[in-house]
Specification:
It is a single chain. By secondary structure, this protein is mainly alpha-helical. The chain has one domain (4-193). It has helices at residues 4-50, 57-60, 75-98, 103-140, 162-193, and strands spanning 150-151, 160-161. The chain has a two-stranded antiparallel ribbon. Strand 1 (150-151) and strand 2 form a beta hairpin. The radius of gyration is 22 Å and the shape is elongated. The model has no long low-confidence stretch (mean pLDDT 90).
Length: 194
């Protein structure tokens, strides 16, 4: 049998570890939110100031730090990573509150998430199909730059950059899949506590 002091020390240690994890997730959430807001603001301002008519082009046609640097990254990739980081850390912060949900709330959440995930999966496949077709057609003309491929359907006056659209829908798909898994794990955790 453990002495009461040892049990109390372990309890305090677990609380400190829990608080440290919570603080890390809070910092990640704040950083990711800041990155998303900054890049979204940059994209909107650059589109307005640069009179760019292709949705997402401002986040694809730029390299950070520069195109000559082999370790450069596109803002759209940073946006994707920030959105995934926000999804993960935000859900982890919400865990205590979400464990209090009723089983019907879990069912509604799963239904909503499943629908969004299915739509995102369709969009990812659709974008890749268009991307492959347009790159194949452009390669005949000797143009092999995937960053300039756009989808002007269904509204030709507002075309979308396919790199942007594909990364956006892939991010939504990944967030949806993780969210569905997360809700299932919450249901199991709640059932084991009952």
């Amino acid at each position: 049998m453990q002495r009461p002091e040892v049990a109390e020390q372990r309890k305090v240690s677990r609380m400190r570890e829990s608080n440290a994890h919570k603080r890390i997730f809070e910092i990640i959430t704040l950083l990711c939110t800041g990155v998303i807001l900054t890049l979204t603001s940059y994209s909107i301002v650059a589109s307005i100031m640069g009179h760019i008519d292709v949705v997402g082009a401002t986040l694809v046609n730029v390299q950070i730090p520069s195109q000559t640097n082999p370790l450069s990254v596109k803002p759209v990739s940073i946006l994707m990573a920030a959105a995934l980081g926000l999804t993960y850390s935000g859900l982890e912060l919400a865990r205590p509150s979400m464990l209090k949900f009723s089983s019907s709330t879990y069912s509604y959440l799963k239904m909503f998430i499943f629908g969004g995930t299915a739509l995102a999966a369709y969009e990812v496949m659709y974008n890749f199909a268009i991307w492959i077709a347009q790159l194949s057609a452009a390669s005949i003309a000797g143009i092999l730059n995937p960053d300039i491929v756009v989808n002007s359907f269904p509204n030709p006056s507002i075309p979308w950059n396919l790199v942007f659209a594909t990364k956006l829908t892939t991010t939504i798909l990944a967030a949806g899949l993780y969210s569905f898994y997360y809700i299932r794990s919450l249901e199991k955790e709640k059932a084991s506590l009952a």
